[in-house]
Amino acid sequence: MPAADVLDEIRSLRAADRPTHGGRLFAYVYDPGVAGLDELAHAAYAESAHVNGLDPTAFPSLLAMENALVAAAARLLGGGPGTSAPDVVGSVTGGGTESLLLAVKTARDARPELAEPRIVVPASGHAAFAKAAHYLRVTLDPVPVDPVTLRPAVADVAAAMRPETVLVVASAPSYAHGVVDPVAGIAALAADAGVRCHVDACFGGWTLPWLRRLGAPVPPFDFAVPGVTSISVDLHKYAYAPKGVSVLLHRDPALRAPQYFAYADWPGYTMVNPVIASTRSGGPIAAAYATLRHLGEDGYLRLAASTRDAVAGLAAAVRVTDGLRLMAEPESTVVCFTADDPELDLFVLVDELTARGWHTQPQLRHADLPASVHLTVTAAVAPRVAEFTPALADAVAAARAAGRVVLPPELLALAEGLTPEALTPELVAGLAEGLGLGGGAGVPDRMAVVNTLLDAAPPAVRERLLAEFVGLLQRPAW
User: N6-(pyridoxal phosphate)lysine modification sites (predicted)?
Assistant: First the structure.
């Protein structure tokens, strides 16, 4: 195919995607709304797209850029010369999940004498910790969060720790609700027990320091806190670099040492990897480097101020809307709300907002926490806040008029009574067909019925349902 035709084909496929720019998508992507930044990042990406991060001695340009990114993250998060953590080191990874996997792997491998290592993670901790525990055969000990504060109690973290605990986790902030865990108390517990403490700042590590400089009351969470041994921060979130670039920092080189994998007992080259991937494109790293260099401290302060104002405006819109309430007063870049009116169906509301061009993220109920709607707020949202307020009121009115989703009794009984083992591919395919998701139909515009079904199911059933459903979607395009 001619090159122009190939690009036209890609653009046609992209037409079905959510909008990645314009401040109307509140999840998955991070848009600063800075003119010319995309073009710069794309050009930098192209310059290094074919550079291979496998061997830093062959491609020293990539090594230099990675070291610069690590230094920038370390300085922002309380490390480096003149701080209480002068020997901070780090690695650039392909994303937050990889950073968290490596944090768990490093803590596990530092304690080879333990046959059954364990990690203590708040229930609000990112699902990537559960993925890491699953992949690495580490036991996950979840700590409940208070239904009001949405944080774990330090005493509950202490109760969850055992002699086999190799890592204790805190979030800054938690993704779901945007609140910062009691990092100082959790880190002190870990230090007293001689256990590593990882702060997952993938989501907030590049915003909380700037918000603090703007006067926000950000609690201690970084390397200035004694006992914090590692921190993760994603540059493809609020550093506004293209995906996927994250940084995993350790307080000193000795703590990082178990992160490396080296293997020489074969006839090929000796493999030495600081991260999970061996071959890595330099494209994302160069794009992140260009983004950080171009925006600079003044640029990030301006973007943080715009984001702060947008958060305040969206939270105000929720407060004045009857039937809605904030799950927590915003502390970072998240606005999360739920419904306190039994006649208002949150999942229908999400559909109504989507129909009006506002793409939010529904979150299902968990333990004592109700279903909620999550808004990840970026700088590009600021010019849209005035439009969102009436759109939210209009969507709420439409959701009330539509009424709640009522599942057929037999379908509700199926969701509540099934075990994961009973969910065969054939059963899920039939269920998807009945919900309008099968037969190549793709994902429907309105998802309230699907979300209501998932909300009614226990978490283990949700997991199996979604895994089987995604398996139906991911088929060869013959």
Answer: 237
Entry pTM: 0.95
Secondary structure class of 137 (helix, strand, coil): coil
Which residues are 362's β-sheet partners? 373
Report pLDDT for 440. Answer: 52
For 79, phi then psi, to 5°, come to: -115, 175
**Distance from C-alpha of 409 to C-alpha of 431, rounded to nearest angstrom:** 15
DSSP category for residue 359: B
Q: 195 burial class (0-12, 13-18, 19+ CB within 10 angstroms)?
A: buried
Pairing of strands 118-122, 165-171: parallel
- What architecture does CATH give domain 43-291? 3-Layer(aba) Sandwich (3.40)
In the chain, CATH 3.40.640.10 covers: 43-291
Q: Amino acid letter at 354?
A: T
Residue pair 435/449 in contact by the 8 Å Cβ criterion: yes
Q: Which parts of the chain have pLDDT scores under 70? A: 436-443
Helix (H, G, I), strand (E, B) or coil at 254: helix
**What DSSP string runs through 368-384?**
TBPPEEEEE--GGGGGG
User: From CA 455, how far away is CA 149, in angstroms rounded?
Assistant: 22
pLDDT digits (tens, 9 = 90+) for 64-112: 999 999 999 999 999 999 999 999 999 999 999 999 999 999 999 999 9
Euclidean distance between the first and the last CA atom of the chain, given in angstroms as a whole number:
18
